[in-house]
Amino acid sequence: MADRVGAERLVGMKRNPLIRGLAATLAAATLLSVTAAPAAFAAGSGAVSQPAAGARTPLPPLNPAALQAAIAGLPNADETGALLQVRGSAGAWAGTSGTADLKTGAPVPADAHFRIGSITKTFTAVLVLQLAAQHRVDLDAPVQRYLPGLLPAGYPPITVAQLLNHTSGLPGVDLPDDPQWTFDHRYTVFTPEQVLATAFRHPIVFAPGSAQQYTNTSYLVAGLLVEKLTGRPYADVMRDQVIRPLGLRETSVPGNNPELPAPYAHGYLAVNGQLVDLTRMNQSIPWAAGEMISTAADLDTFLTALFRGQLLPAPQLARMFTVPGVKMFGTDQDAYYSQGLMTSTVNGITVWGKTGTRYGYTNGVWATRDLKRRADNWRQLHLEGNRGPARDRGEDRGRDHPVRLRSR
Question: Could you say which residues form the signal peptide (predicted)?
Fold first, then answer.
């Protein structure tokens, strides 16, 4: 196998089971100036709490030593490098750790490009909500009205809003979770319809609107909806409606281009006791659910503009800060995804944002609603392979999806 990295010492140690939820943990740590917030964001903890009405806990002062400690000790068995940036009127801090390239030992650049994974969903939700503001789509109408024949005939009506807040009940994408398959298909181009077909061979998971379960499937459908309503490619709409108006010069929709713009930090995948460089990889599988590239600075610009109402009118923006009153499917945990964002309350402070993971990278962007404290972080995470049947790769892999899918 080509592109292997001589770093067996980094993958020979026992892997921390919480590492897959580290993007969210680190985001909370950055926002709240503590070294960790495991009760709120630890992988699989099921302890993500909802915003308390009227909660007004003062922001703590920044603790630079704690923030630096949160990214210290890299590279290690699970990660190669990390970047943390905190902004806002309540204080600012920035730091990096580890290396961008195991072969050269180059430091992590503060302006590194990275694959933002499921943070793409926030961008996609903005496009759909913009179309709603233009009265080109009814969020409470079934998506079958706009995309006839896409969903299986036996599926019940699913509204556009249910796509955006993960209450659609659609099954997850069903692709092999084998690292060798991932490596071998890193340049393979898939259409959204081909990826969706792997999900649609399964029955609906629950009655739409009755529960919440995170999947890429809903946002692949949302991307096709954007194309159908505009008559234009998804990437072109994103560039014209979000990227260019905000001046996001370092943000891109790569399409079938496997490259990352320089500067960047390499992404690695752990395969059979070795690290494989997976920096160059086609992103056609996640597409509108997870394909975009950006930088910490650009993500901060995007989130700030979004929260300030520069991208959406007030009625549509309010939907991004409204969590449906249902439970996570198969649990007694309250839902925590809105239409394009996710939320948690940690130590009395409510934050909104999004996490994302692609092979080699895990990241998050978070802010208080008033933007007094904002955080962007990414880490080069060595995702484990050889883990059996696939689950929908919608979110940080610490999030457990109750429905197990079969490998092909």
Answer: 1-42
Are the CB atoms for 49 and 377 separated by under 8 Å?
no
Q: Is 375 helix (H, G, I), strand (E, B) or coil?
A: strand
User: What residue segments make up the domains of the chain, in order of their start?
Assistant: 4-381
CB 358 within 8 A of CB 380: no
What sign has the CA pseudo-torsion 99, 86, 119, 59? positive
Supply the Cα-derived Rg of the chain in whole angstroms: 20
Q: What is the sign of the dihedral through the CA atoms of 49, 53, 57 and 60?
A: positive
The encoded tokens of residue 327 equal 């439970």
Q: For 196-222, what is each residue's pLDDT tens digit?
A: 999 999 999 999 999 999 999 999 999
pLDDT tens, 155-168?
999 999 999 999 99
State the average pLDDT over residues 290-294: 98
Could you tell me the sign of the dihedral formed by the alpha carbons of 400, 401, 403, 408, in that order?
negative
Given 118, 284, 294, 338, the catalytic residue:
118
Residue with tokens 């985001």: 27
Distances (CA, A) of 248 to 120, 244, 253, 297, 310: 14, 6, 11, 9, 14
Tell me what pLDDT residue 167 has: 99
- Angle among Cα 203, 208, 213 to the nearest 5 degrees reads 80
Active site residue 294: no
Q: For residue 128, what are the CA distances in angstroms to 179, 359, 363?
A: 33, 27, 23
Cβ atoms of 253 and 234 closer than 8 Å = yes
Other beta carbons within 10 angstroms of residue 268's beta carbon come to: 29
* Tokens 């929260």 -> residue: 307
Tokens of residue 52, six digits:
């308390």
- Predicted TM-score (pTM) of the model is 0.87
Lowest pLDDT segment from 92-101, 128-137, 175-184? 175-184
Is there a cis peptide before residue 263, judged by omega within 30 degrees of 0? yes
